[in-house]
Design goal:
Shape: globular
Number of strands: 12
Largest sheet: 8 strands, mixed
Distance between the termini: 8 Å
Helix content: 40-55%
Bound molecules: (R)-mevalonate
């Protein structure tokens, strides 16, 4: 039986996280860390991945029952706008993302048999770099191809978004769109049809003076961080969401003009607002403050609560020295890489 291998990149938010969930734009780049899924058709289901610490095995029927349960809870959470029951369910073994993701893809394809699946990922989990979105996208691509479906990028992206909803409750769809399409994405959540533009052509240069820095792994999942923002008093939240939307619009122009001073100012403004939305940490505040002091720009990237910080300075050497001086190592990743792709099919 043929084994299909597909991979998808992680992503980094240049700007616009959290506010994008409320309809404001975000600018997001695909990064050169990837999640790779191999899938071989089989009668039963078997999933192996380093992070799973065990091989998950079940009959397709058991898989389908887990998915039905997750769908029912997700529906009732959507009504109550409280996603805690869903996150509690997803923490219970063996209910986890790879399982729900594979079950959902097969259900969409009306496939009643299973697959042998292997997952490998270079994307740190729960760090703001889109590990779950990259998994959702590469799973949809590998499994659909193994079952001889030639799904378009839009179809892969739609399935990946449904998978993301189990993990995050009310994601914007920006993460999976970036992991699916790759490059640099301008994203606006406008259901039923989101605005998704590939904008690397509008941004000259290779985004080379951005550096990523990993702070402590976060304790909360993306969905829980979204819930923190959702639970803030509405007036307080709405004002800040609007500021982030305005700052993202200005950032697009500044990137196009290569206007370093404005890029840095906007990153710092976004960090300030994200901290007010309670998704920064002491560690992130200290690191971003140190970069601000040398005249740079820095902000958390992704859901926050720990994880990666994105930093910018025209003087890359000085930026690197400051990051090292704070006890961190800058992470070498390329921004704007290709989206989902088939690696092999044998
Ligand atoms: C998470 O990577 C980015 C958030 O804006 C959530 C989302 O867009 O779904 C925090």
């Amino acid at each position: 039986m043929a084994t299909v291998v597909a991979s998808a990149p992680g992503k980094v938010h240049l700007i616009g996280e959290h506010s994008v969930v409320y309809g404001e734009p975000a600018i997001i780049a695909a990064i050169s860390l990837r999640c790779t899924v191999s899938a071989t058709r089989s009668e039963s289901m078997r999933i192996w991945g380093r992070e799973l610490h065990q091989t998950l095995e079940a009959t397709p029927r058991e898989w389908a029952t887990s998915l039905e349960q997750a769908c029912a809870i997700h529906r009732s959470c959507m009504q109550s706008k409280n996603f805690r029951p869903l996150f509690d369910l997803m923490k219970k073994k063996p209910m986890n993302l790879p399982l729900v993701a594979s079950a959902l893809v097969l259900e969409k394809l009306s496939v009643r048999t299973g697959a042998n699946i292997k997952i490998r990922s270079d994307i740190p989990i729960g760090s703001g770099l889109g590990s779950s979105a990259a998994l959702a996208v590469s799973m949809a691509k590998a499994l659909s191809t193994a079952y001889c479906y030639e799904l378009s990028s839009d179809e892969i992206n739609r399935i990946a978004f449904e998978i993301e909803q189990f993990n995050h409750g009310t994601p914007s769809g920006g993460d999976n769109s970036t992991c699916c399409l790759g490059g640099l994405i301008w994203f606006e959540k406008r259901p039923p049809v989101n605005i998704i533009r590939q904008v690397e052509g509008a941004i000259p240069g290779n985004l080379s003076n951005f550096l990523l820095v990993q702070t402590r792994k976060r304790e909360k999942k993306t969905g829980q961080l979204l819930q923190i923002v959702r639970d803030l008093p509405e007036d307080f939240r709405v004002v800040r969401v609007k500021i982030l939307g305005r700052v993202t619009g200005e950032m697009f122009g500044a990137l196009g003009r290569k206007d370093a001073a404005t890029i840095k100012r906007l990153m710092n403004e976004a960090q300030q607002v994200l901290a007010e939305l309670r998704v920064s940490t002491v560690e992130i505040d200290q690191l971003t403050e140190a970069i601000r002091r040398i005249g740079g720009g820095a902000k958390l990237s992704g859901a926050g609560g720990g994880g990666f910080v994105i930093c910018f300075h025209e003087d890359r050497k000085r930026l690197e020295e400051t990051i090292r001086g704070m006890g961190y190592s800058p992470c070498e990743v390329q921004l704007g890489v290709k989206g989902v792709r088939l690696e092999a099919s044998a």
